[in-house]
Amino acid sequence: MIKLNWKTAGLAATMMLGVLAVPLMETASAVPYKESDKSGINRTASNRAQSITAEEPAGQVTLTYPKASVALTAGTREFIGSSLIVSEKVALTYQTGNPAVAKVNTAGVITAAAAGSTTLTITVVSTGYKGQLKLPVKVSAAQPLKLGFSPKLESRKVTAGGKSFSVSMVTIPKGMPVTAGIAGRSVGATQPLSAIAKNYNADIAINGTFFDAYSGVPDPYGNIIRDGLPEHIGNLGTTIGFKWDGSAVMDSLRIKIFGNVEGSERTSGWYAYFINRKPTSGSAATLFTPARGAKLGFAAASAVIVENGNVKRIAYGENAEIPKNGYVLVFLGAEKGQAGKFKVGDKVSYNVEYQDMNGNKLDWSQVHTAIGAGPRLVKDGKVSLNAADEGFRDPKILSGGGARSGIAILKDGSVIIATVSGATMKQWAQVMVQLGARQAMNLDGGASSGLWYKGKSVTSAGRELSNALLFGEKLKW
């Protein structure tokens, strides 16, 4: 646990960017942006691209995919949404005919579950527009993973600030499958690190972001992105992200949510600044997805329940269920007025915007997995440490020593995850530089510090954890 400054999580009104992020499900919706003709992908149908146009000229939307079908091997994922060309900025739903073969989420990430065939249907759902694209999906049997080298566990002695440290570390090759592991696959729960790893069939695990370990629901504090969709917003510290091309990025990621609600006679904007976090103060604007669990976990004064992109009902004073193919919006205190914008039957969508701590736009559209903690330790091979600027106020971070966990990106794109005891943040940063880090950041520490490698605990966490960063050749997404 760590004390954080939540003021930096406030929302500022800016233009919408990014992809729509709603919950992982067999049916999902997204708002892709119109791609420029510089993409080199033909917008019309051909033998290499499937395309279909809405029948009504006034609402004509063309959907184009660069291949006639989607071919995957079992246990792999593909970001369909990144290659889809859409002639207008509209809301879409993604649906697979047989989720036992492959399932898809709102960002257009399709996960192959088992060998077989199914169909991916992409449908325009924005008011006044029509269009649909159907793509055959063929999943073949799983194949051995090809990596640059095998992960390596080792212990090193490193001197920093005049003190010797014993560092437990694992070097992981670029492109090794990775995901954010959530305890019990439900935000707000805890499990031993080993149980989280086994739940996802991981080979390697390290504790992830900070979480509330003492005062009730063990909600995370930092950013969590899984399968391209934000599952928690922290908007503090530093975040590491893993991209579809196998590379990793690190920045002071700040996530913002902006949405629209379309009624028969009006269109209104709305926003939220938390995802899957139980309100702890009088005011909140929070989006709850199925990653939270079956229900909110508390009785909300009012809850807007969205299913298949439409307001199904508005619940009052109840622990509302979260639809598997939808989400719930809770507006409290000063944000209560936002709830009045929603009526049963209205169409609802939202966009996610990524910025750094200075308000500069970040292109994290290709990031499928991310964990936020911090502070930043190393930037471009040199110590770069300013915890206060990142929003940290706890003396354990600012000046104290303790058990630490961290992650680093090396020059060749491989990653190091590591633990150490009794280090200040400055010493931890110096250790990371000596380990060869080009970029590095701190993860949760203290009693949360834990490292697990191929069935054995290397560093034993002193408590159950809410989340972890997981690596494995045959991960269960």
Topology summary:
Blueprint: E1 27-30, E2 50-53, E3 62-65, E4 70-73, E5 77-79, E6 85-86, E7 92-96, E8 102-104, E9 109-112, E10 116-124, E11 132-140, E12 152-160, E13 163-172, E14 178-182, H1 193-199, E15 204-207, E16 224-226, E17 229-232, E18 238-243, E19 248-251, E20 254-262, E21 267-272, E22 274-275, E23 284-288, E24 303-307, E25 310-315, E26 326-332, E27 347-355, E28 367-373, E29 376-379, E30 382-383, H2 395-398, E31 402-409, E32 415-423, H3 425-434, E33 439-442, E34 451-453, E35 456-459, E36 467-471
Parallel strand pairs: 4-11, 22-23
Antiparallel strand pairs: 1-7, 2-3, 3-6, 5-9, 7-10, 8-9, 10-11, 12-13, 13-32, 14-36, 15-34, 15-36, 16-17, 16-28, 18-19, 18-28, 20-21, 20-27, 23-26, 24-25, 24-26, 29-30, 29-33, 31-32, 31-33, 34-35
What do you see in this structure?
The structure is a single chain. The protein is mainly beta. The chain contains 3 helices and 36 strands. The chain starts with 26 loop residues before the first strand and ends in a 6-residue tail after the last strand. Strands 12-13-32-31-33-29-30 form a 7-stranded antiparallel β-sheet. A 5-stranded mixed β-sheet has the order 1-7-10-11-4, with no helix packed on it. It has a 5-stranded antiparallel β-sheet with strand order 14-36-15-34-35, with helices on one face. The N terminus is likely disordered.
